[in-house]
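Hey Z.,

So I finally got round to the FE2/S2 (inorganic) cluster thing we talked about over coffee. Here's the setup:
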Amino acid sequence: MTDMTTEQVHDVTVNVNGVPRTATVPARRLLSDFLRHDLELTGTHVGCEHGVCGACTVLLDGKPMRSCLMFAVTAQDHRITTVEGLCDAPDARPCATGERMNPAQQAFAECHGLQCGFCTPGFLTTVTAYLEENPSPSQEEAREAISGNLCRCTGYQNIVKSVLRAAEIRTERLEENAGESA
Ligand code: FES
Ligand code: FES
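And the result:
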């Protein structure tokens, strides 16, 4: 049995949602636990802890990453975006409630794609990253994009609609931004 009192610890500094954050953690601290417990960013959720459900997905340097499959020490000096940081994205805008939302957040709200607090953060981060790669997905591609995020409670219809709507919103905002800077 490991003696916790003698376990070696490391200072881990990660840029999370644009802010450098440091915590002292054991080498085996998962990134998901580091975010939730050490940094108190509880938007990221843990479902399976085996890389299967996608609930813990965050963006690592803009790419989707299952934070339950990564040690916090491995994220040293990398840029992490959690669901809390999506509203600070350059394409985030104030919505009717006054909160800022990125295109995925706005679309999920409009299309009733929001699910429970466990799976929704993973859907939002996954879709945000996906649209960077495929800005104009077909319905089949949208369904494929979220196939790694598990929810047993829905037929995914509204989530697929949300992905397609998020692509529209994202394109509209990019065009508006380009028009403003021209
Ligand atoms: S908790 Fe990480 S994939 Fe399920
Ligand atoms: S797991 Fe979140 S609504 Fe089904």
